[in-house]
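Encode chain A's predicted structure.
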Amino acid sequence: MTTGTEISLERTVELADMVAYAGATWDWHRLHYDSAWLAERGLDRPVVDGQLFGALLAEMVLDWAGPGATLSALSFRFNSFVFAGERVRCAGRVTSVEDGVATLECRVEVVGDQARVAVAPAAAQVRLR
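Encoded structure for chain A:
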């Protein structure tokens, strides 16, 4: 667990994942599932709930940090929509490790034909075991 270490997580976010997330968070906004409502607004696919990226970033950091680690801070800013069926890559780089706390710079990118940065800047702090 040294400065400069890079970590990542890739995931395709399918509509079924989005519905499960909506059920867990009670966020049933039509933007995330209603094709007819979306078409009226010029969107061809449901939009991934932005908070799902927080969950993916937390999963990436905690998987790297290992059992017993505690996520103590997470912040992020959205840059663009991500749509159902797109593949995202969460990436992070350790910028410091002091007194048992690692700080990471992170981002989320859409990979594939429509590649773009979806979330940046993002940052996480994790208390290591």
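The chain has a mean pLDDT of 95.
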